[in-house]
Structure formats: structure tokens, C-alpha cells
Design a protein that fits this description.
Blueprint (H helix, E strand, L loop, with lengths): L13 H16 L3 E2 L2 E2 L1 H15 L5 H22 L6 E2 L4 E2 L3 H10 L8
Antiparallel strand pairs: 1-2, 3-4
InterPro entries: Myb/SANT-like_dom
Pfam family, one: Myb_DNA-bind_3
Protein name: Myb/SANT-like domain-containing protein
Length: 116
């Protein structure tokens, strides 16, 4: 890989995702959060950390997109898990709602339809 070439970001890879989240948390806990995202210097440190840990280079845009993607997932998860009578099965780590309940929930919460 060329020196300035970045890798394709794969936020579904559990190892890459864990390192990314850990590095983001480190930056947030160090005070490098600005509004709903991180400061530019934090993205630089996260990119350097990921390159050191997993040997892949990422651009600030890729990292910010990963942050936004996981933030949407988290907000959806918290909404689902706090729904009264949610039917969450901790053994299978799934929601065992009947199809009608899912249809009603998806209609009422368009955020879910953005995850394909």
C-alpha cells in the first residue's frame, strides 16, 4: 500500500470497531469532544492509533463517518431497549417481537429504515 493510501473502513469488523471505539473514548475522556463529535486533533490521534494497532490508515472523513454510523446505531439501540414491553431476549441478544410489532415500530421510527 502506498504511504498516503487509506484503507476501506469496515465498521462491521468487531476487532477494528473495538479499537476505534476505545480510541474515541480515550479522546472523549481527555476532553477532545466538540459538540456531537470530536475535535480535529482527536481524529488525527485516532487515525495514528488505528494505524499503529491494526496497520491500516484512515482519513478523518472515514473516521467521522464511522462515528456517525455507530452513533445512529447506538441511538436506535437505546430507543429499542427502553421501549416498554420490548421483548428483548438477553440469551440470544435479539428482540423477539412479532412481525406486527416490528411493522408498527418501524413505521413510527423512521431512523430504523436508514439501516440497510
Amino acid at each position: 500500500m502506498a504511504q498516503n493510501e487509506s484503507c476501506r473502513a469496515n465498521w462491521s469488523d468487531p476487532t477494528q470497531r473495538k479499537y476505534f471505539i476505545d480510541l474515541c473514548l480515550q479522546e472523549v475522556n481527555s476532553g477532545f469532544r466538540s459538540g456531537g463529535t470530536l475535535k480535529p486533533s482527536a481524529w488525527t490521534r485516532i487515525a495514528e492509533g488505528l494505524e499503529k494497532i491494526i496497520g491500516k490508515k484512515f482519513t478523518q472523513k472515514q473516521l467521522k463517518n464511522g462515528w456517525d454510523y455507530m452513533k445512529k446505531q447506538y441511538l436506535t439501540w437505546t430507543k429499542l431497549i427502553t421501549t416498554t414491553g420490548h421483548g428483548y431476549n438477553s440469551v440470544t441478544q435479539t428482540f423477539d417481537w412479532p412481525a406486527e410489532r416490528w411493522d408498527d415500530y418501524i413505521k413510527a421510527n423512521t431512523l430504523l429504515t436508514s439501516f440497510h
